[in-house]
Design goal:
Elements: H1 38-60, H2 68-88, E1 91-95, E2 98-103, E3 109-114, E4 120-125, H3 127-132, E5 134-140, E6 150-156, H4 157-178, E7 196-197, E8 213-217, H5 220-228, H6 231-250, H7 260-277, E9 281-285, E10 288-293, E11 298-303, E12 308-316, H8 317-320, E13 324-331, H9 341-344, E14 348-355, H10 356-366, H11 381-384, E15 393-397, E16 400-405, E17 409-416, E18 420-426, H12 429-434, E19 436-443, E20 452-456, H13 457-476
Helix pairs in contact: 1-2, 6-7
Length: 479
C-alpha cells in the first residue's frame, strides 16, 4: 500500500499517550499508542473461554491430573504475553482524512482507512473494560473483514467517545469536500408495473436541531419473556431441564460431562442475546440513529443516513398473541470473524421486542415511504406452498421493494431500490411446471432479502425489466 505524508495532524483526544514521531520533520503527524492496560482487557476475553473449557474438563477428569494448575497458569501467562506484545507493536494516527493503524512484530501490518468510506464508528465496552474505564473503537467498512478492520482496543472511555465524534466530523467534512456539485434530479419514469406506485412520503417528525430525541427504549421484563418464548430460549430451557434431571437421578455431576459443552454453548447463546439487547435505546441525532445497548458488554453506534441496506419486521407466532414484534436493520459493514459468526448471523435489532405501533413509528424514521405488501400470489402457488399462500406477498413504489412471507415466523422486508446491485430471474423445476418464477434482489447486506417469490412467468419477466429502471432512477435522483 502506498501512504501519503500528512501535512498536519487533526486534533486528537487529550491524554492519549504519543509514541515516536516518524521521520519527516516537525510537520509529520504524531503516532499514538493504545492504553497500557489493553493487554489485560484482551487477555480477559480469552480467560473467560479458558475457564469454560477447564470447567468441563475438570468434571470429566476429576482429580486425575495434579499438574493441570501449572498448565493453566502457563496458558494464562502466554495470553498476557501475547496481549503485551500486541500492545507494544501497535500504533495509530489520523492524518489527511485517513486513520492509519500499524501493528505486527515479525510481519508488519499497515492499514489505511479513508474516513469517507467509513460506514459507522462504534464504541464497545466488554465487562473488564467497563471496570477499568476503557473502551474499544470499531470502524465498520463495507465488505472488509472485521479481523482486519479498524479496531483501536483500548482507549479511555472519554477519549474513545471524543475521538469517535472527531472522526465522524472529519468524515463528514471530507465527504462534503469530495462530493461533486449536486446534479439536478431528472424526472422519474412512469412505472408501468402493476402494483408499483409513486412513493408517498411519510412525514417524519423533526426535533430541535442538535437535540437527540428518544425513539425507543426496550422493556427489560418484556425482553426476557420474549427470549424465553423464542426458539433459542426453548432450547435453553430443555437443556437445563435435561441436565438437572440427569444430575438428580444419578447423583453425579460427571454424568453430564459429555453434553456439558453443548449445554453451555446453548445457554451462552441465550445469554449473549440478552446481554447484547438489554437496555436497547434508539435516539434520533444529527448524525443519524444512535443505538446503545448492552448489560455487561455495552455498545454505542450510529446508523448514518443512507447506510441501511434493508429493514426487516419479524413477527413469530407466539409473539403475535401478545402483539409483539421485532424490527431489524442490515447495515453494510465488515464480515464477522469466526469467533463472532454466531452473533453476526443476527441483524442489528433497533427494536428487540416491542409493540407493532412502536415498530411502525420506527419504520417512519428509517424509510422515506412505506409501501405495503399487498400483491397476492397467483392461484397456482396453492399447489407449491399451501401453508404460505396467504402470506406470500410483495409490493413496491419508486423507492422501495417490500416482500412478506412466513406463516409461523412472519417476516416483512423493505429494501431500498438504490441499494440493489443486481436482479435475477430464477425458476426451479416445480415452478416451471406451474408456470411460476421468482425475482431475486441482491444488495450489499448479507442477511436481508426482499425476493419476490412465486410470481407468474409474465409478471416476473416484466419485473426483471422494470425494476432495474426504477433502481437506476432512484440512484440518479440521489435517493
Amino acid at each position: 500500500m502506498t501512504s501519503t505524508t500528512p501535512s498536519a495532524e487533526p486534533p486528537l483526544p487529550a491524554g492519549v499517550p504519543a509514541a515516536e514521531v516518524p521521520a519527516g520533520g516537525a510537520q509529520a503527524a504524531v503516532w499514538h499508542r493504545l492504553h497500557p492496560l489493553t493487554p489485560v482487557v484482551l487477555a480477559g476475553t480469552r480467560l473467560i473461554s479458558l475457564v469454560v473449557v477447564l470447567a468441563a474438563w475438570s468434571l470429566a477428569n476429576q482429580g486425575q491430573d495434579k499438574n493441570q494448575l501449572v498448565i493453566d497458569l502457563v496458558v494464562l501467562g502466554l495470553a498476557l504475553s501475547y496481549g503485551f506484545v500486541s500492545w507494544l507493536v501497535t500504533r495509530w494516527q489520523v492524518a489527511d482524512g485517513v486513520l492509519r493503524i500499524e501493528t505486527g512484530l515479525i510481519r508488519r501490518d499497515s492499514r489505511r482507512f479513508p474516513l469517507t468510506q467509513i460506514q459507522a464508528i462504534d464504541v464497545v465496552q466488554t465487562g473488564i473494560a467497563r471496570v477499568l474505564g476503557l473502551a474499544e473503537l470499531q470502524l465498520r467498512v463495507a465488505g472488509s473483514d472485521s479481523k482486519r478492520g479498524g479496531r483501536l482496543a483500548c482507549l479511555k472511555l472519554a477519549d474513545a467517545e471524543r475521538l469517535r465524534r472527531e472522526l465522524l466530523t472529519i468524515s463528514a467534512s471530507a465527504g462534503r469536500a469530495a462530493a461533486p456539485e449536486m446534479a439536478v434530479p431528472q424526472p422519474r419514469p412512469e412505472s408501468q408495473v402493476q402494483g408499483i406506485q409513486p412513493a408517498a412520503s411519510v412525514p417524519v417528525p423533526q426535533g430541535e436541531a442538535g437535540v437527540a430525541r428518544t425513539l425507543f427504549r426496550v422493556r427489560s421484563d418484556r425482553l426476557a419473556a420474549a427470549i424465553i418464548l423464542s426458539r433459542a430460549g426453548a432450547f435453553a430451557l430443555i437443556v437445563i431441564a435435561v441436565v438437572s434431571t440427569i444430575v438428580a437421578v444419578t447423583g453425579r455431576t460427571g454424568a453430564v460431562a459429555s453434553i456439558l459443552p453443548a449445554a453451555i454453548g446453548i445457554v451462552l447463546a441465550v445469554w449473549r442475546q440478552f446481554n447484547s439487547e438489554f437496555g436497547t435505546t434508539v435516539t434520533a441525532t444529527p448524525d443519524g440513529l444512535g443505538l446503545r445497548s448492552g448489560l455487561v458488554q455495552t455498545t454505542a453506534e450510529t446508523i448514518r443516513p443512507g447506510r441501511v441496506q434493508g429493514v426487516r419486521l419479524v413477527e413469530p407466532m407466539i409473539w403475535r398473541a401478545f402483539g409483539w414484534c421485532r424490527l431489524e436493520v442490515d447495515v453494510a459493514g465488515p464480515k464477522e470473524r469466526r469467533e463472532n459468526r454466531s452473533e453476526g448471523q443476527r441483524l442489528r435489532a433497533l427494536i428487540p421486542v416491542g409493540s407493532r405501533p412502536e415498530a411502525m413509528a420506527m419504520l417512519d424514521e428509517l424509510l422515506r415511504s412505506r409501501p405495503a405488501a399487498d400483491r397476492p400470489p397467483p392461484a397456482q402457488v396453492r399447489l407449491k406452498a399451501p401453508l404460505q399462500y396467504h402470506y406470500l406477498r410483495w409490493g413496491a413504489d419508486d423507492s422501495y421493494v417490500v416482500a412478506a412471507r412466513g406463516r409461523v415466523r412472519r417476516t416483512t422486508t423493505w429494501v431500498p431500490l438504490e441499494k440493489v446491485q443486481s436482479f435475477r430471474w430464477v425458476q426451479g423445476p416445480v415452478q416451471r411446471r406451474l408456470g411460476l418464477a421468482s425475482v431475486k434482489l441482491d444488495v450489499a447486506g448479507r442477511r436481508v432479502k426482499a425476493d419476490i417469490e412465486d410470481r407468474a412467468e409474465a409478471e416476473a419477466t416484466d419485473l426483471l425489466v422494470r425494476l432495474p429502471e426504477l433502481a437506476r432512477a432512484a440512484r440518479a435522483g440521489g435517493r
